[in-house]
């Protein structure tokens, strides 16, 4: 693939990511407008968080380590063996996710009691009902991300980049035209249907790669064993990052009214501005790095990581400056209307300033993490993520007393930067000259 073709692919991934995030943001605005801050909304958010939190721990780990292992099969063995491995993995993970779903449906009251101990009466019953409706998301998400990993390993990035757009469109259409008829239960059903579309959209290009659904179910498959071995540390690292979110929300809830919302909105604006560029580059680079690692071509691997790091930091520097300089008009343009007052704009834009200081750290750690995963080393990123999480949590407790909401945002920025520096230093020990 030529340089111009690479730039074109990365640009399309960036644009698709931006459109997806904007649609997702519009979806949340419509949910707030249609259902407000009510018992129904609270029950929906709790129910939605149950399958997604489970998936964040399991699915993120799976999608992260699948591409390096699958690329190794493609590089050192054959396409046929690689596709058989993927089919077996899909079957095993679907069985696991179905069992988790059935267990979750049976234990929904107990799960809701743990996650929402303050719920009782109507709120509790509704949360249990919505949880049972949305738990099949586990099965759908598992299939979706394995499909995505297969396509990206074959350097097919466009379809995986746009699959979330139809999901968001389904929910937006529902919220604009159907919510008054079906209410919050209908929104839950629409959420499941919207996610299901991602499986069907990816099926035609998956078929073209030669992938076929097979009846194989081998628990002793060496590739499956390697996936599980690599996924464990990623699950721990991801769980540590979730801990930061819970700690920040808990601390923000003790500040002035609207602090939790301001923290949430400023973080999402930061991720829209920063994540689009960083995710596009790292999504594109992982399959190629994985093939180089399989061939043990570490000189080229080092060169490509260095180039990806330079490119990412070059692109994200003006984004960081833009978020800092234009934070107030940006928040006004996107959010200030209705119940979102000028005072809320002040809080959100102030927190956004401090989030933006972590832009280069966030981008750097995204690139460097992928370098470790390409080499099938998930333990080092996990250990360093635990260290940076510890730094972030300690800083959050300290800075919130001095700076309030801004201290929580600054703690995140420093945490991202610390992780990027630690990852860079550890890669330096492997590759002199990085």
Which structural class matches the secondary elements?
A: mainly alpha
Radius of gyration: 22 Å
- Count of distinct structural domains: 2
Q: Unreliable segments (pLDDT under 50, ≥5 consecutive)?
A: none
N-to-C series of helices and strands: HHHHHHHHHHHHHHHH
Distance between the termini: 24 Å
Largest sheet: none
Word description of this protein:
With 434 residues, the chain is an all-alpha fold. The protein has 2 domains: 34-219, no CATH class; 233-434, no CATH class. It is built from 16 helices and no strands. 86% of the residues lie in helices and 0% in strands.
What's this entry about, in short?
By secondary structure, the protein is mainly alpha-helical. Helix content is 86%, strand content 0%.
What keyword list fits this structure?
single chain, mainly alpha, 434 residues, 16 helices, 0% strand
Give the arrangement of secondary structure elements:
Blueprint: H1 3-35, H2 39-76, H3 79-106, H4 108-115, H5 121-134, H6 137-153, H7 158-162, H8 164-208, H9 222-252, H10 259-294, H11 298-325, H12 327-335, H13 342-356, H14 359-374, H15 379-403, H16 405-430
Helix pairs in contact: 1-8, 1-10, 2-3, 2-5, 2-6, 2-9, 2-10, 3-6, 4-5, 5-8, 6-8, 9-15, 10-11, 10-13, 10-14, 11-13, 11-14, 12-13, 13-16, 14-16, 15-16
């Amino acid at each position: 693939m030529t340089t111009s073709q690479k730039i074109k692919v990365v640009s399309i991934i960036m644009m698709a990511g931006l459109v997806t995030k904007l649609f997702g943001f519009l979806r949340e605005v419509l949910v707030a407008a249609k259902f407000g801050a009510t018992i129904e909304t609270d029950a929906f958010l709790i129910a939605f968080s149950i399958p997604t939190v489970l998936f964040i721990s399991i699915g993120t780990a799976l999608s992260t380590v699948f591409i390096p292992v699958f690329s190794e099969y493609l590089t050192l063995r054959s396409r046929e063996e690689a596709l058989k491995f993927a089919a077996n993995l899909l079957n095993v993970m679907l069985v696991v996710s179905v069992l988790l779903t059935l267990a979750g449906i049976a234990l929904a009251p107990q799960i809701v009691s743990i996650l929402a101990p303050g719920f009782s009466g109507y709120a509790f019953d509704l949360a249990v009902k919505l949880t049972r409706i949305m738990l099949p998301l586990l099965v759908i998400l598992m299939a979706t991300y394995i499909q995505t990993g297969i396509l990206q390993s074959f350097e097919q990035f466009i379809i995986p980049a746009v699959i979330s757009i139809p999901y968001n469109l389904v929910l937006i259409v529902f919220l604009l035209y159907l919510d008054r008829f079906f209410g919050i239960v209908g929104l839950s059903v629409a959420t499941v249907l919207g996610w299901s579309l991602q499986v069907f959209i990816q099926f035609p290009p998956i078929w073209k790669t030669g992938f076929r659904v097979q009846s194989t179910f081998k628990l002793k498959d060496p590739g499956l064993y390697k996936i599980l071995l690599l996924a464990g540390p990623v699950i721990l690292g991801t769980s540590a990052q979730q801990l930061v979110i819970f700690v920040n929300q808990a601390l923000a809830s003790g500040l002035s009214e609207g602090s939790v919302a301001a923290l949430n909105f400023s973080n999402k604006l930061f991720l829209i501005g920063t994540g689009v560029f960083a995710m596009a580059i790292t999504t594109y680079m992982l399959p190629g790095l994985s093939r180089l690692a399989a061939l043990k071509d570490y000189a080229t691997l080092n060169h490509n990581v260095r180039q990806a790091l330079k490119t990412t930091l070059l692109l994200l520097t003006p984004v960081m400056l833009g978020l800092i300089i234009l934070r107030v008009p940006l928040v006004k343009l996107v959010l200030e209307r209705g119940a979102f007052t000028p005072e809320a704009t002040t809080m959100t834009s102030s927190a956004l300033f401090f989030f933006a200081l972590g832009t280069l750290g966030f981008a750097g750690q995204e690139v460097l993490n992928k370098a470790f995963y390409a080499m099938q080393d998930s333990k080092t990123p996990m250990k360093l993520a635990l260290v940076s999480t510890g730094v972030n949590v300690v800083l959050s407790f300290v800075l919130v007393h001095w700076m309030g909401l801004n201290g929580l945002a600054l703690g995140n920025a420093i945490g991202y930067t610390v992780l990027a520096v630690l990852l860079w230093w550890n890669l330096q020990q492997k590759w002199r000259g990085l």
